[in-house]
Amino acid sequence: MIGDVFRYDTLNLFVSYGSRCTDKSFVCDLLLRLYEHDGYGVRTELVAKASECLPTEEMRGLIAQF
Known about the structure:
The protein is mostly helical. The protein has one domain (2-65). 73% of the residues lie in helices and 0% in strands. It contains 4 helices and no strands. The longest helix has 19 residues, at 2-20. The chain is globular, with a radius of gyration of 11 Å. The model has no long low-confidence stretch (mean pLDDT 86).
């Protein structure tokens, strides 16, 4: 059940927050930190959905950091 929370509910909340946040570099940094500390592999979907809340320029920077 915990995995489902991260795969669905938290994912939707992150995309919603990232879409409304005006500081997209903060969203990128947050995404990187969350992904770095993902010992169970449940936050991978955040990366897949990042394009829904980040403009192209930030996505390119994020890809470079990965």
